[in-house]
Amino acid sequence: MASAKILIVDDEALLRQLCRRILSPFGYQFLEAGNGAEALDAVARDAPDLVLLDLMMPQVNGYEVCKRLKQDPRTRLLPILAMTSLDQLRDKLEAIKVGANGFLVKPFEAAELITSVQSLLALKQFTDHTLGLQLRITLLLADPTEAAHVIPEALRIIGESLDWDLAVYWRADAHAGALHFGESWRAAGPLADFEEACRRIVLAGPEGLPGRCWIEGRPLWASDLFGEGDDPRVKENVRHPPRGALAVPVRSGDRTLGILEVVSQRPQVPDETLLKALATAGLQIGQFLDLKISRERLERSRLELEQIAKIAAHQMQEPLRLVTSYVQLLERKSQGLLGADGEEYVRYAVDGAAWMKTIVSKLLVYLEAGQDKDSLGAADSAKALERALGVLRKDIRDIGAEVTCGSLPKVRADFAELGEVFRHLLSNALTFRRSVPVRIDVSAKPEGNEWIFSVRDNGMGIPSEYHERIFELFQRLHPPGTYPGIGAGLALCRKIVESHGGRIWLESEPGQGSCFHFSLSAAPDAEPRSAAKTRES
Question: What is the structure's pLDDT at 183?
Fold first, then answer.
């Protein structure tokens, strides 16, 4: 760290001048403070890389300065080299106790000061690199927008954080017992031909540093990669062969998904701490990739099952139509011929066929909902509610219900499907009512970049243990025939809302009513407008 910034803290100006003269040939920048208070201000203002701190000063002494800096999360890792003319064990122990990273007894030799400063600066540089690496990898994996680019971004972060020249990800093929080139990142430099050799080569078994890392299942270091006789890349006659290299497994549980290899054009001294830091990054990436693979498999399975269900439901429609038609024909033709029991059996068959036809029809609606949401426009929720109220107008009038609403916004949604959400939530409130005048209120409020819609009623209410179950397909809380419907409406609402990137949930108290909430993204530059204020009989 030739351009490192060093703060020299001592109440003696001659000592500060001496330190500057000894360290000036190494290109450091210097700050000075004559007492502890000035030192704390300088650290806060100028953020030095190292503090040379005299322990015995008037007012705020060096022990107190060191203690405060080490207790502050912003300066906890700042290296402090303590200086004192007291050569007592208790003074050294006290300095270490308050967090000093090194100790010099005055008067000290120039070489002693130089070596101590260089060692602490090298430690800080390494700490900054390794902590920065782990933090940047963690932030990368936490960002859902980067899920498709995790490996190339991770390679870039690793290469830049360590200041090495090339980073390669090798995919492990357990069936073939080989490593295949996956992705790479390269700094501007002479390793382009070596990177190209990596692209062409398949490493079989224990070949090369990545192969040995895979077989042994642990991080490995090579001071001179081209001293590895079993590495097939040695035979590629690359013009600028790399030297230092390290490799770590990318693991999830007991499975190795791949190998991270980082290469330098310079020989590198083995460093176990660096290997451990990179091994942690490999473990983080492995767990992320394993989860990503599992999610992709689950999504493929879901899409396949949904496609099978669609095909089956479509194929069942025609046979069900025929069965329903002929059973109804049998019912008409057999009147007065089969006796009371026979006619009852036929009615059961007619009702069963009609029920099955309804289930298949609702299943198709459910399966086809929430598709093609890549290019949604601005949907006027006030108009969508008006459409739903129009469909339910007769039920509202027959029941004598009152539906009120405030100003509703435009949201990023499919207009027709938003209307279906309103229709099912309103229908639910009209169906599960108490023996009091039905009151339903629809409202919306902004929350961040979303709108939270609420459909509140004064109906029967739903016990808390059923708040999740009611959103599942074909789930009913009452025996068949007690209320109309087959238990598909709320499941359809959830699928539509979630396909738009929102969520739906319920607040309810039995005997008092329910309030269904759902969220949708706000449409850009859209102002709320009022729907019809009241609909009643």
Answer: 92
pLDDT tens per residue, range 162-213:
788 999 999 999 888 999 999 999 998 788 888 998 999 999 888 889 999 9
Confidence of residue 98 (pLDDT cuts 50, 70, 90): confident
Give the Cα-Cα-Cα angle 418, 424, 427 (nearest 5 degrees): 140
What tokens does 352 get? 């069963």
Q: How far, in Å, CA of 508 to CA of 530, rounded?
A: 26
Read off the tokens for 429.
């409130």
Which range is least confidently modeled, 102-106, 330-334, 424-428? 330-334
Q: Strands 504-509 and 513-521, how do they pair?
A: antiparallel
Check: CB of residue 394 under 8 Å from CB of residue 426: no
The letter for the amino acid at 81 is L
d(CA 5, CA 467): 60
- Across-strand partners of 105? 84
> Using CA atoms, how far apart are residues 261 and 158, in angstroms rounded to an integer?
10
Antiparallel, parallel or unpaired: β 504-509 and 534-536: unpaired
- Please tell me whether residue 124 adopts helix, strand or coil conformation: helix
pLDDT at 375: 57
Backbone angles phi, psi at 511, to 5 degrees: 85, -5
- Please count the residues of the chain: 537
CB 383 within 8 Å of CB 407 = no
Rounded Cα–Cα distance for residues 172 and 181 (Å)? 9
Radius of gyration of the chain (CA): 36
Those residues whose C-beta lies under 8 Å from the C-beta of residue 402, and which sit 6 or more positions away, are: 437, 438, 439, 440, 534, 535, 536
The amino acid that residue 521 corresponds to is S
Asked whether the beta carbons of 162 and 262 are under 8 A apart, the reply is yes
Number of continuous H segments (helices) and E segments (strands) in the chain:
14, 21
Residue in this structure with the two tokens 């169906």, named with its chain if needed:
431
Structure-block tokens of residue 243 = 């030297």
With beta carbons less than 8 A apart as the criterion, state whether 8 and 35 touch.
no
At residue 243, the pLDDT reads 84
Closest Cα partner for 522 from 421, 422, 410, 419? 410
Would you give the distance in Å from CA 175 to the centre of its chain?
31
CB atoms within 10 A of CB 69: 23
Picking from 286, 195, 203, 209, the residue whose alpha carbon sits closest to that of residue 247 is 209
How many CB atoms within 10 Å of residue 378? 16
- Phi/psi-derived region of residue 145, left when phi > 0, alpha when psi is between -120 and 50, beta in every other case: alpha
The pLDDT, as a whole number, for residue 169 is 95
Three-class SS of residue 381?
A: helix
Query: How many other CB atoms sit within 10 Å of the CB of residue 342?
Result: 11
Q: Which are the contacts of 294, defined by CB distance < 8 A and separation ≥ 6?
A: none
